[in-house]
């Protein structure tokens, strides 16, 4: 079993976070048994960070509406049969109308994104002890998604990648980034690659060419306890 490096969180949690996590979501309906087997395989090969536990670090994400943040987390906890999540994330810097999600997203489904209101609601979740740490995902940050080199590069930037696969062999491969380093030449070449600024999947309205830009996490007023 591969060992996983850990990183410290700044948003109030004393517990370190495994540096590479595995995702459980899918844009299409996947049978429950496929997801279950993939999660068990991920734990077996060494993953200890699940993006949806004392030994397992559980991350969940929300949709961006201030009044739905706390209710959504309570619903998530009920579904997971847990008292808290280790990390609760703003899913992306875009808000959609509440309801079933369709892909690709439609322009008429977009609504104004109240980042400050959402973040205040996130802080309330943390104060209530329902989330040990809070943060953001899919916000503006320099990252690439090119297997080992990309995962290693992301890790060296102090960012935690969330990988996704239902294949046990590929899950195991995603953890093989801790016993080697990129060369200075590699880092220079990677730094010269044009960067995308939002979700790198076919999300229609929210593609790289879309009009919505992301928010730099450095601009958030993070309250540390």
Automatic annotation (TrEMBL):
Gene3D superfamilies: NADP-dependent oxidoreductase domain. Keywords: Membrane, Transmembrane, Transmembrane helix. Pfam families: Aldo_ket_red. It comes from the Eukaryota. The chain crosses the membrane at residues 130-155. The keyword Cell membrane does not apply. Residues 66-140, 149-190 form the NADP-dependent oxidoreductase domain. This is NADP-dependent oxidoreductase domain-containing protein. It comes from Urochloa decumbens.
